[in-house]
Specification:
- This protein is α+β, with helices and mostly antiparallel strands.
- Helices cover 42% and strands 29% of the residues.
- It is built from three helices and six strands; from the N terminus they run E-E-E-E-H-H-E-H-E.
- The protein has helices spanning 36-47, 51-64, 74-90, and strands at residues 2-4, 7-9, 15-17, 23-29, 66-73, 96-101.
- It has a three-stranded antiparallel beta sheet with strand order 1-2-3, with no helix packed on it.
- Helix 1 crosses helix 2 (51-64).
- The radius of gyration is 18 Å and the shape is elongated.
- The two termini are 31 Å apart.
- Bound molecules: L-tyrosinamide (TYC).
- L-tyrosinamide binds at residues 28-32, 34-36, 39, 58, 61-62, 95.
Amino acid sequence: MSKLGSAEVVEDDVLTELSTPSMYQVVLNNDDYTPMDFVVEVLEVFFNKNEQQATDIMLTIHHQGKGICGTYPFDIAETKVIQVNQFSRDNQHPLLCTLEKI
Ligand code: TYC
């Protein structure tokens, strides 16, 4: 018996157990400067929300300080954070996207 990460492996290398990947929430944070329309666009383009869903999430962030855009395995969540933050900087907005492990 050998162990590879969280996967149990028997002598003949047949996998008998695989753990499910940890999931991460991608979060948008409120600020005083990013236009509401820009946040709605980010939610539509990067998180596949329709206009009503995106508006609801944007208003939740505006009133409560932050909001969940989606939940993904680490690699996908990290890529979205990088892409959203780059898109915000490219458009001269301070909008901050972060990761939170569930
Ligand atoms: N608070 C911003 C404003 O009044 C709007 C905003 C919403 C900014 C959500 C960031 O993640 C955010 N223009």
